[in-house]
Amino acid sequence: MENASADNAADVIIVGGGLMGASAAFFLRKRGRSVILLERGLIGQQASGTNFGNVRRQGRYLTQLPLAHRSREIWSRLPELIGEDCEFVPSGHLRVCFTQEQAGRLENYAHDAKAYGLELEILSANALRSRFPYVGHEAIAGSYAPLDGHANPRLTAPAFGRAARREGASVEENAEVLSIGKVGEDFHVETRDRGTFRAPTILVTSGAWAGAMSSRFGEPVPLVARGPQMGVTEPLPYRIAPVLGVSSPLDLETVYLRQVTRGNIVFGGGNRGPVDLEACRAYVDPENTLNQMPQLRRLLPGIAAVRIIRVWSGVESYLPDDLPIMGPSEKVSGLFYAFGFCGAGFQVGPAVGDVMAELIDTGRTSLPIDAYRIGRFAQQKAA
Amino acid sequence: MADLRVVVVGAGPAGIRAAQTFVEAGLRPIVIDEGNASGGQIYRRQPAQFRRSYETLYGFEAKTAKAIHDTFDRLVGQVDYRPETLAWNIYDGAVHTMRDGVAHKIPFDALVLATGATDRLLPIKGWTLPGCYSMGAAQIALKAQACAIGRQVVFLGTGPLLYLVSYQYAKAGADVAAVLDTSALSGQIHALGLMTSRPGLLAKGLYYRAQLLARGVPVHNGVTPVEIEGTDQVEAVRFRTRSGAERRVACDAVGMGFHLRSETQLADLARCAFVFDEDLAQWRPETDSDGRASVKGIYLAGDGARVLGADAAEKSGRLAALAALQDLGLPVAVRRMDVLRREQQRMEQFRRGLARAFPWPAELARAVADDVLVCRCEAITAGELRSTATLKGAPELNRAKALSRVGMGRCQGRYCGSAAAEILADVRGERVEAVGRLRGQAPVKPLPLSAVRGAAS
User: Fold this and answer.
1) pLDDT of residue B457
2) At A3, is the pLDDT very low, low, confident or very high (cuts 50, 70, 90)?
3) Touching check for B62 and chain A: CB below 8 Å?
4) Mean pLDDT, chain A, as a whole number?
5) Were both Cys, which of A229, B281, B361, B426 would link to A288 (CB 3.0–4.6 Å)?
């Protein structure tokens, strides 16, 4: 293996320039660590740039709320931290449901979330009608999170990438990682056309592609790549402040939408679509778009008068327990992971970078991430 | 054999000849047409209650237009014709259509895309004023509705359509205030050598020009457009002549177009490979000499594959259908294919001649002032695109779109894509092909959210 020059060496190499990698690079620089961020394409092109843009805490696993709270606090401070707001608007988040059974679940969640510091307002059918008259009459109850909201995913990861660069990180785009090997205390990271990089610490934040990397270090995970089925309508006068979503045990019914301040309604949900990991592309199955239409009309009947101008997808990765992987490798010292956010990584992204930077810098985290150990799948197998 | 599903998208000259070829082979093609009657743009039919003659409507092309219309009319009953139907996506071996709010999925064994071309546009200060139309729209108004786009019309741009539409307007009695061609006359004369393979077409072009001059219509070559003036409505066009003098022509409407661009979104959605066409400075789907795309079962014909005009479109429609039949294992007359293929190759030279005679004025797109809207759907100015590219970094067009919204609106970049690519390439100091092309995304045209699924077909 060739010797890396000083330029190609740092305290930490981050593999994968999505929101997790870019925010980790930013926060590691804030802690004074030298960082090289290697991204195969451009920063934030995959799941980070193509997701719905939900800055949503309600509905998350209760144990994930501390992480979501930390992230929510970062979302508020984006202008001072990275110099732009990424179109974050804390305009509220409303989940509605169609059955009494589900209404009971919403109520229980609101009760339990309170203990974790998340205040939710449970709305009766009448309260829904009077406060959010555009919501469909099939909705019998709602749960409103006044301080959640939405942001623009296309802008967010690139903004963190530029901020990291301004803070002194070396952000290498078009640098595809071919192999990672450990030589003595250092990892040697070989890239296509861009030479070899060297660091004693590696953070793998390569999303759907991270599974192949963890496997090579003897830590395989049952990671599945899928694409969210997104779409956007033509612009309309801005009327719908909160993000709207359906709470249902059925995937098909679980659609969500948000109106951006310039007027378009962005939507998604229902079944997910196929992914081509080699081509780095995910596709929208037209059947899914057609399936979304009646569900969107249930949620927001007025949307029937509007037209879809564009659909898109992106490469996300999912784990069977719907929880991400975050933390140190349990096999190789100096190796860390943060990937597999199961379609719910955007809101927590900034805090994931912050927490991973804290973990790498201090060896510990100030909030619990134990539930996300990579070893949990190895244990399952052993049992 | 009757089980074979062949689908043709488009019912212009290429689509009609493809459908005819399938019928002759004993198949019953499904023909999907966005228009309400076959004929395409060039041979667009007038509404049923209109009574203009073929000669009035199509001039030199009257006989051809009638032949095309008659051919398709005779196919009634032998094709499954679906007018006013949008093919909005191609996915997993099926075309997805929408008609009157009802969605259908049409699986195919072979698909001929004959999607035609639209005007290639360029932002000019004032081009968003009411009264500005594309050249194609100006022609449709006349052909379909017997309407002019204004009382005093300036035609601005370049390409054979510039002279044809101006002539059609003048002949119909409209006041054509000026014809402003960004291409130099000398270039058009130099390109004649390449265009002699189709002397008829060449002669027609010269005829239109002579007719315009004879009617006292000012025709200027080698112009630089400066501004389309007006407050609530087009009032005048300012331009610089070849010698640099600034002129102003009063008008209440402008028809614009800088030659044509192939409609390639469906080929893109079908994941066909694209190549950069040096002559036209635009991307087009890759095909072999018969029209086979890189994706099995997909064939391209007409101006949607290469801008060669209507006569060539008929031939390429036949050829693409024959190639499809051949690939489906049906007997085809190989000699007939040879003849068509040779004729197509001769057209290639003519196409290069046209591109040279009426070049895409890339330098005008690159020089668009910062305050001019480039992306009309999203209201993005040239300045915003430039500053995004400079401050945020956009090595290619899709990144520029993601960060600036250019090309993100309902036209999916059909209006702004060519100019946006030039502006981005200019900022980066690169050739236009280096910044790539906007990836197509479904739906091809907006889709009503009120849609329902139709019965299986």
Assistant:
1) 58
2) very low
3) no
4) 96
5) A229
The answer on pLDDT for A63 being more than 70 is yes
Per-residue pLDDT reduced to its tens digit, A69-102: 999 999 999 999 999 999 999 999 999 999 999 9
Q: Strand, helix or coil at B157?
A: strand
Using alpha carbons, select from A350, A346, A257 the residue that is nearest to residue A306: A257
CB contact under 8 A, B393 and A162: yes
Q: Which two tokens stand for residue A362?
A: 């201090």
Give the domains, in start order, of chain B with CATH numbers: 6-118+261-355 (3.50.50.60), 121-258 (3.50.50.60), 362-435 (1.10.10.1100)
Q: Which residues of A touch B (CB under 8 A)?
A: 42, 49, 154-155, 158, 162, 233-234, 283-287, 289-290, 293-294, 296-297, 303-312
- CA A7 to CA B229: how far, in whole Å? 55
Structure confidence by residue, pLDDT tens digits, A28-60? 999 999 999 999 999 999 999 999 999 999 999
Q: How far is CA B151 from CA A277, B58, B272, in A?
A: 57, 22, 44
Question: Chain A: residue nearest B97 by CA?
Answer: A286
**What is the per-residue pLDDT for A68?**
98
| Bridge partners, residue B380, by sequence | B375
Q: Which of B215, B217, B213, B224 is nearest to B154 (CA)?
A: B217
Q: Which residues pair with B283 in a beta bridge?
A: B276
Residues of A in contact with B446 (CB under 8 A): 234, 307-309
Structure tokens at A158: 């690139």
The token duo for B318 is 């036949």
Q: Select from A152, A154, A259, A266 the residue whose CB has the most chain B CBs within 10 Å, as the one to mutate to test that interface.
A: A154
Percent of chain A with pLDDT over 70: 97
Alpha-carbon gap, residue A46 to A127, rounded angstroms: 39
Q: Are B406 and B375 in contact (CB under 8 A)?
A: yes
Residue A90, both tokens? 């804390």
Quote the pLDDT of residue A2. 41
pLDDT < 50: residue spans in chain B: none
Rg value, chain A, Cα: 21
Is A234 in Cβ contact with B442 (below 8 Å)? no
Using CA atoms, how far apart are residues A112 and A58, in angstroms rounded to an integer?
Answer: 11
Phi, psi of B332 (to 5 degrees): -135, 155
* A174: closest chain B residue by CA: B395
Q: What is the pLDDT of residues A303-337, one digit of tens each?
A: 999 999 999 999 999 999 999 999 999 999 999 99
The reply to whether residue A234 touches residue B410, judged by beta carbons under 8 angstroms, is yes
Classify residue A217 by its DSSP letter: T
Strand partners, B224: B240
So what's the pLDDT on residue B186? 84
Looking at beta carbons, which residues of chain B come within 8 Å of A307?
410, 446-449
ipTM confidence score: 0.95
Residue A252: pLDDT band with limits 50, 70, 90: very high
Res B2: pLDDT: 58
Structure tokens at A36: 């090289």
Q: Provide the pLDDT for residue A380.
A: 59
User: What's the CA gap between A191 and A180, in Å, rounded?
Assistant: 9
A311 to chain B nearest CA, in Å? 6
CB B232 within 8 A of CB B194: no
Dist CA A274 CA A280 (whole Å): 11
Question: Chain A residue with minimal CA distance to B92?
Answer: A285
Q: Are A128 and A77 in contact (CB under 8 A)?
A: no
Question: What is the per-residue pLDDT across B359-398, written as a single tens digit (0 to 9) for each?
Answer: 999 999 999 999 999 999 999 999 999 999 999 999 999 9
CA angle in degrees (0–180, nearest 5) for B82-B88-B94 = 80
d(CA B348, CA B15): 20
